[in-house]
Specification:
The chain has 511 residues and is of the alpha+beta class. It contains 16 helices and 15 strands. Strands 3, 4, 5, 6, 7, 8, 9, 10, 11, 12, 13, 14 and 15 form a 13-stranded antiparallel sheet that branches.
């Protein structure tokens, strides 16, 4: 029996299923049918010589379905490769900003971002008392996202009871959004660990050092700061809350309608969840403004801008400062140039590679299991994003019932065919039953996914290969299996390295 003094273990996650029939997707089903048709047609037409050509064709089609290539089926890999080569031939994988961006009708320069980010807009919303909030508006999904920088005390130096309480409070925060018709559709946690040259540290020390202090004390502080600066590592954690204006249409209409009404409802939701955020021991450092959001985007694309912007932010704290406020102008948020390659993404002065957490730990693990993925990697920037989509009780009931039925039918069919049930199938069914029991007991069910990005300075392939090897080692220490997102590195970077609330696929079954 587990007591409150014992470390809590977590597990039982279910992979999301997207098959069309059995284990086959729609494309796989078509290829299997084509293979069968290729073999049967010569027999039906009594042209036995045609079987010589039909059998190799059928084997190729079946190989595209059942032979995996780098973790995905052959047909999926072939589809990605063909689309990538078409985009390369048409130069659609290259992005150039600045003077090439069209201006608005009022003459202002819009935010110029590549790929899937091009449709996004940054809005500045007043929240009262002279403060403003930056909101990311996605017109395609009609969603509004607000980002706040948070600080978490961690789990390493606290007793087991406190650690269990903190993790449980975070689960309660997610559970509070598993309601019917709730406006909040997505919650994302973004952690960015990046090298810091100590510019901000030295600027802060110079500002707060007493000029009347003895010279030997000032020299000692300067030496300590110079020694600490090169090994400093900065960590930023962001919590993104995404609201669907479609779900909240009545509340938006009551608040005046349009973008202003939607932003007013979003601000109201943020105020309502402050107590639950504090209950999870999350300290809200600040709610990001539009300039802050633009800076976060800019530093992800160009790590060279980090020391310059840090020095600017430190200087802007002076009472007699007359320059621009901290942050970045909206139109300067994106990269100057970017190019998507098959297995990496080149942007400004850096190169990135993004991975998807393909498989979570098989057994039950501690809450700190992902710590190796979050550690800093010397001169490598590492970003980790965990995205949650809370399911309503009705949707969760339907999804879990379907999952249990499918797994039970699969077991019965295998038993009728004389096949022995594998331990994996038995464990999957047990997990599905455990989740359904938890739902009945009042727990919430969420979809979630994890994405990791490593970014190195320059375009040296050896440095990227070293960062890749270190990432695979850290993922093995965490017990997770990572998969490179080949062919879609630009879109993957946008979802993993930027806290903009980009969501999970919409047309896949939840679980």
């Amino acid at each position: 029996m587990t007591t409150s003094d014992d470390p809590q273990l977590y597990g039982g996650w279910q992979p999301e299923r997207s098959s069309y029939l059995g284990e086959l997707s729609l494309g796989g089903l078509v290829l299997v049918a084509g293979a069968g048709l290729a073999v049967m047609m010569p027999i039906y037409l009594h042209r036995w010589v045609g079987e010589i050509a039909a059998v190799p064709v059928a084997l190729v089609l079946l190989a595209l379905v059942y032979v995996p290539v780098r973790g995905i089926s052959g047909v999926e890999w072939l589809s990605l490769a063909v689309r990538h080569q078409i985009n390369v031939a048409r130069r659609r994988n290259v992005f150039l900003s600045g003077l090439f961006a069209p201006r608005r009708s009022d003459g202002t320069q819009p935010m110029d971002l590549p790929g899937v980010l091009a449709r996004l807009r940054l809005l500045s919303v007043p929240t009262g008392a002279g403060e403003e909030l930056g909101v990311v508006f996605d017109p395609r999904t009609n969603c509004y996202s607000a980002v706040m920088e948070v600080r978490f005390p961690g789990l390493a130096l606290v007793d087991t009871t406190k650690a269990n309480a903190r993790v449980g409070a975070w689960g309660a925060f997610l559970r509070s959004h598993c309601v019917e018709g709730g406006p909040i559709v997505r919650i994302a946690v973004h952690d960015r660990s990046l090298p810091d040259d100590g510019t901000a540290l030295m600027a802060w020390t110079a500002k707060h050092l007493d000029p009347t202090a003895p010279q030997h004390v000032r020299d000692l502080v300067a030496d300590l700061t110079a020694d600490a600066a090169p090994v400093a590592a900065a960590r930023r954690t962001y919590l993104t809350i995404t609201m669907s204006a479609t779900r909240a249409r009545l509340a938006v209409k009551g608040a005046g309608g349009g973008e202003l009404g939607a932003c007013a409802v979003l601000v109201r939701e943020l105020l309502a969840m402050q107590s639950s955020i504090a209950g999870a021991d999350l300290e809200v450092v600040t709610h990001l403004t539009s300039r802050d959001l633009a800076e976060v985007i800019r530093t992800a694309y160009d790590p060279h801008a980090i020391p310059v912007l840090a020095a600017h932010a430190a200087a802007a704290q002076a009472p007699d400062w007359q320059g621009l406020p901290p942050g970045v102008e909206e139109e300067l948020a994106g990269p100057a140039a970017a190019e998507r390659h098959w297995s990496h993404y080149r942007h400004d002065h850096a190169t990135s590679r993004t991975y998807h957490v393909h498989r979570w730990p098989e057994g039950r693990v501690y809450a700190s299991v992902l710590q190796p993925l979050l550690k800093s990697g010397g001169d490598v920037t590492r970003s980790f994003t965990m995205t949650y989509e809370c399911l309503s009780p009705r949707t969760a009931r339907t999804v879990l019932r379907r999952e249990r039925t499918k797994r039970d039918v699969k077991r019965r069919v295998r038993a009728q065919g004389g096949k022995i049930e594998s331990l994996d199938e038995r464990q999957d069914l047990a997990h599905a039953q455990e989740q359904d029991s938890a739902r009945v007991a009042g727990h919430g069910i969420v979809r979630f996914t994890g994405l990791v990005t490593v970014t190195v300075d320059g375009d040296d392939p050896n440095r990227l290969a070293t960062a890749h090897a270190q990432m695979l080692k850290d993922s093995a220490d965490s017990g997770v299996v990572l998969r490179e997102l080949v062919g879609v590195q630009d879109a993957a970077f946008a979802a993993a390295a930027l806290p903009l609330g980009l969501g999970l696929p919409e047309k896949r079954r939840a679980l």
